[in-house]
Amino acid sequence: MSKVTLTINGKQVTVPAGTSVLDAAREAGFFIPTLCHDPANPGFGACRLCVVEIKGARNMPASCVTEATNGMVVETESPAVMQARRTIIELLLANHPTECLTCDKNGDCRLQDYAYRYDVRQASFEGEKHDYPLEDSNPYIIRNMNKCVLCGKCVRTCAQVEDRQVIDFTFRGFQTKVAPAMNTDLAGSDCVYCGRCVAVCPVGALLYKPMAGKARTWELTKKQTTCTFCDAGCQFDLNYKDGKVIGITANTPGEGRPLCLKGRLGLELLYVDKPLTPMLKKDGEFVEVTWAEVLGLESVFEKLKAQETQK
Amino acid sequence: MTACSASPDLTQEEAMQEVFDHYRGFDGAIIPVLQEAQNIYGYLPKEVLDKIAKELKMPFSKVFGIVTFYAQFHLKPRGRNIIRVCLGTACHVRGGSKIFASIKDQLGVGDGETTEDLRFTLETVACIGACGLSPCLMVNEDTHGRLQAKDLPAKLAQYQ
Amino acid sequence: MNNLNEIRAKYTEQFQQKSKRARIVVGLGTCGIAAGGDKVMEAIKQEVAARNLDIDIDFTSCIGMCYREPIVEVALPGMASVIYGDIFPDKVSQLIESHVVNKQPVTEWAAMQIPEGRTEYDGIVTMDKSAYYEKQVRTVTSRLGRTNPESIEDYIATGGYEAIEKALSMDRLAVIDEVKKSGLRGRGGAGFSTGMKWTFVYNAQGDKKYAVCNADEGDPGAFMDRSVLEGDPHGVIEGMMIGGYAIGADEGYIYCRAEYPLAIRRLNLAIAKAEKLGLLGENILGSGFNFRIRIKAGAGAFVCGEETALLNSIEGQRGMPRVRPPFPANKGLWQKPTTLNNVETYANVPFILRKGADWYAGMGTEKSKGSKVFCLTGKINNTGLAEVPMGITLREVIFNIAGGIQDGKQFKAVQSGGPSGGCLPAEKLDLPIDYESLGAVGAIMGSGGLVVMDENTCMVDVARFFLNFTQNESCGKCIPCREGTKRMLEILTRICDGEGKVEDMDTLERLANVIKTASLCGLGQTCPNPILTTLRYFRHEYEAHIIDKRCPAGVCNALLVYKIIAENCTGCGACRRVCPVGAISGENKQPHTLDTAACIKCGGCVSKCKFDAIIRG
Questions:
Q1: pLDDT on residue B5
Q2: Of A194, A230, C281, C293, which has the highest C-beta tally within 10 A?
Q3: With 80 as the cut, is the pLDDT of residue B26 above it?
Q4: What residue numbers bound the domain in which A108 lies?
């Protein structure tokens, strides 16, 4: 494979041709912040936090969508880049609830990380903020669209499952919002609560309801496990607090129909100390159901029961 | 089935079917199909959008995303009469918001909404330049000024 | 059909026959119709029928003098065509009586005459000497107002489809070379070399390629593309065919804004007629070249004028721009190599092929060749369309062609390039109009809208107007544009409302610079220009709003103070009765007083006062 050599912050870096400036810089140990970049779904280029200065370029290109070329001279934290990043973070904060103290994502939030790194204490702009109602009308996912930064990772990950594509960007400009068809809440959509979207959300816009309010992020230790309910091989995280599993969160999807609700609930049953009663949508309403039903094992159970009575 | 006017009658359905037949196999047919659908129905009812999504084999969410991106498309029918309540400074100090609240109650709709019988669409406006007559509102091209909440039913009664 | 020789001869003969008969031609572009041209047409038909006159009645599109619409041309055999302006239905009878029946032109209604080798009338200025046209060159606009845009016969008789015939006999690279040599640059915005663009697409690998025409003209104050589409649709089609042939495309799309129904109708008609003659379709003129054109109507999104958003919209997606690279030349429509050029760019191409690259490059400046169509609007005397050689100065365009400022007021600024452009002050009036000169002072050529502002225009308010526009039209994809335009608009609104803070100017500048350099697409990268240029050239107006709480132009309502001039006040009480907040008091027949603190500045009193006794400033 052919290689290209470029200079990043004065350091010579050689990477395979086709590598993005972002990956080349990260490979070389330089920090570049991203919100919309998803290695599994690259090429969106919307958040502009990863902009860098490239000698000879007219503007500041986004490093995630710019291919490294021979002889390129890149600065990842020049004064102009720093000003752009600070301003972008400020713009996000100007339209973001300042409730980090009680946010479940506190400690595991990219916006918070970047505000800290670039020393943005508060936005110097006052103005209109979104005031969407909190959506928690389903048992699994809490959506707080006021915290959404419109990175679109949830839209793109949802679109990877052929017959789902439950959410998309809707409206435009300042009014742009990620929403299901007809701007309903998730409960009113065809969402199956696989949780892929929650797994990729960089901020506190999407949360696991079963874990909400149960732990600060730094109290948790995560242990990765492979789901065995089918052969897709999805990765989930067991979330331990004080030695007990308090919830299962999606990590990396496998091939095929990845990260399904059944898998996560099954793992909850297996690992969580006190799992919540599972719920499924029937006739448009969420109702409590048995574990056997959720896992599709009702007939097996009945067979087993019958066999045991026969004994 | 409710008596909702959104339920497409046969001729509209037939017209829509013709549109589907015409655009079958066209690349990028969604926007022209939505334009034709809006010509047929006057707006884009949910059921029609759902049908379009199925016919064009597109996710409903994507169709909705497209509809809400372009200014030309309307999701709700517009009323036969458009009421614009002025909430400019002069009207505000003279109780324009009370007038607005009163109309909202009377019609049972909020800002930007349309009554079920499609008689009225209610909107607010920053100033219609009739400050001397505040509080005021416009119905279609007519300006009504020096309003009092008790006069509103009679004023609106002239518009069918 | 392998060439057009036979039909060209026939149509040319027909076209010449036309001028041997008496004719009346009405301008029916969108502007003409809006001014009542269709009613004038009706009146002419009735008058001609009532008088039983043997005279041809035809229509054309806008000749460019929008300020004189409705425009009617009367031509008698052997005599120069007289172009009349402001012809409303009530003038039709007298016009026909005098000019057609008595052969006496109505000199005082005439805007100019076009001799074209025929006998001139006395007392009417000829087009080439008229103030409006003297400094113009008519290339792209040469058929506007002179031919029937719905007649392919007129088009062919005036040299139409000669260029594609010539191109088809040439090597594809030779066609591209000719365009490159002409120096033609994109007429829609950034001014990229058309020949270079075509070379990229020519070299791009792909089994299928597209030629796309950007007709999504959306800048407030720009209507040159609409005028060209309405007035010479075949010219655009022929330009696209040449481009398609050169790059190896067999399919073209015209993306036209839905707000241009007449342009779409005339394009559809033109395509149908060209198809009927075999000029579009398979094996065109026996050359083996296949080309079809489809029209896609926009759905109301300004950002779709951005080329990658436009492609997404044709594909049936939200019109959100794509990241570049890959460039459309390599991965464009449906990921196939695509050239995107705007209406005016394509319309130039047939002339370049027919008359030669050297002829074209002979006009203009070193780096900006040829001519450019501008739309002149705002506080000028002559609003309309003007095609001028590149390099002409702003002063010549504004004071010679556009006839200077209305009502003898002072020139304050000219806004070039719409919401992406900048506001230039009087010191820049001698700037030559070319891509580099305009760019150097913070404006852009853009699509060619020139909005002229006078002393009564508030530059902060103008910046706010444009920001309001771009903020409404931001697609919402990238953060700098989505969130940044919102905050800039809020700051500008605060300043206009008298609540500006000194630090607002720095904040605006910082936001503008970040949005300009870090946004994803051209909309974001250029939308701060109105702010940056007004801050640069009219900073004192910002300071007046923020520090002195005063709007020097008397526009920003919140900053105006209303006063009653006691000497003029008769005490009639009209103002007192109309005031919604009781801020005016006084006895009848005694000078009234106005309580500034209570006044809400609605302006009701000023419009009621018959004695100029109330002023605001």
A1: 38
A2: A194
A3: yes
A4: 95-212
Torsion, Cα C327 C332 C334 C336, to 10 degrees, reads -100
User: Looking at chain C from residue 222 to 241, which residues have their Cβ under 8 Å from any Cβ of chain B?
Assistant: none
CA distance A102 to chain C (A): 25
Which chains touch C (3+ CB pairs under 8 A)?
A: A, B
Whether A188 has its CB under 8 Å from any CB of chain B: the answer is no
Q: Is C221 or A102 the better-scoring residue by pLDDT?
A: A102
Q: Rounded to whole angstroms, how far apart are CA atoms B52 and A175?
A: 25
pLDDT value of residue A16: 97
**Domain annotation covers residue A13:** yes
| Chain B residues in contact with C317 (beta carbon < 8 A) | 66
Considering the domain architecture, whether residues B123 and B152 belong to the same structural domain is answered as yes
Boundaries of domain holding B37: 10-69
Q: B129 vs B137, C460, C613, CA distance in Å?
A: 10, 22, 20
Under an 8 A CB cutoff, do A171 and B64 touch? no
Q: Do C323 and C179 sit in the same domain of this protein?
A: yes
Q: With left for phi above 0 and alpha for psi between -120 and 50, is residue A207 left, alpha or beta?
A: beta
Examine the domain organization and report whether C194 and C169 are in the same domain.
yes
State both tokens at C357.
């690259």
Which of C292, C320, C600 to mutate against chain B (most B CBs within 10 Å)?
C600
pLDDT in tens, C330-353: 999 999 999 999 999 999 999 999
Query: pLDDT tens, C74-119?
Result: 999 999 999 999 999 999 999 999 999 999 999 999 999 999 999 9
* Structural domain range at position C582: 561-616
| Number of structural domains chain A divides into | 2
Are C269 and C354 members of one domain?
A: yes
Chain C neighbors of A169, CB-CB under 8 A: 318, 320, 476-477
A252 located within any domain: no
How far is Cα C237 from Cα C281, in angstroms, rounded to an integer? 13
CB contact under 8 A, C581 and B69: no
Residues B109 and B43 placed together within one structural domain of the fold? no
Question: Is the same domain home to A72 and A107?
Answer: no
Residue C13 CA to its chain's centroid (Å): 34
Last residue of a domain, one of B47, B69, B91: B69
**CATH code (residue B88):** 3.40.30.10
Q: How many CA atoms lie within 13 A of C29 on its CB side?
A: 28
* pLDDT recorded at residue B129: 67
The answer to whether residues A71 and A13 touch, using CB atoms and an 8 Å cutoff, is no
C614 contacts in chain B (CB < 8 Å): none
Chain A positions touching C486 (Cβ under 8 A) are 95, 127-128, 174
Task: State the average pLDDT for chain B.
Answer: 86
